[in-house]
Amino acid sequence: SIGVIAIDPKNHNVVWVGTGETNPRNDVSWGDGLYKSTDGGKTWKNVGLTGTHAIASIVIDPRDTDTVVVGALGDVFADSPERGVYRTTDGGNTWAKTLSVGPRSGVSEMVADPKNPSTLYAGIWQFQRRPWTFTSGGDQDGIWKSTDGGATWNRLTGHGLPEGMTGRVGLAVAPSNPQRVYALIESKDGILWRSDDAGATWKLMTKNTLVDQRPFYFSHVRVDPSNPDHLYGVSEMLSESKDGGKTFRQIAEGVHVDYHDMWIAPSDPKRMIVGEDGGYAITADGGEAWAFSRNLAIGQIYHVGYDDRTPYSICVGLQDNNGFCGPSNSLNNEGIIDESWDRVVGGDGMWAWPDPRNPNLVWTDLQTGRVSIYDRASQRSTFVQPWRGRAIDDFQLDRARYRYNWDAPIAFDPFDPATTYFGANVVFATRDRGQHWHPISGDLTRNDKSHQQPAGGPLVHDVSSAEFTGTLLDIEPSAKTRGEIWTGSDDGMVHLTRNGGARWSNVTPPGVAPDGRAEMISPSPLVAGTAYTVIDRHLLGDDAPYVFVTRDYGAHWTKIIDGLPAGEPARSVRADTRNPNLVYLGLENSFWLSYDGGAHWRKPALGLPTVATYDIRVQPRWNDLILATHGRAAWILDDLAPVQQLPQAEAAGAMLFAPRTTYAFAQHANDEGLYTRYAGKNPPTGAMITFYQAQPGAKSPEVEILDARGHVVRHLRGTNRVGEREVPVVTNFAGLNRITWDLREDGPVRWNGAAKEEFKGPRVGVAVVPGTYTVRMTLGGKTLSAPFRVAPDPRAHYTLAEYQAAYAFAKRHLEEYSRIDDTLNRLDGYAASAADRAKGANGPLAAQLAALRARALALRARLTADYTNDEDSIQRPGLVREDLQGLLFGAGAPPNAATLEYATRVDGAFDGALRDVTVFERDDVAPVNAALRSAGKPALATSGAKRADVVGSETESDGADGDAEHD
Question: Please, are residues 272 and 282 in contact by the beta-carbon 8 Å criterion?
Answer without folding.
Answer: yes
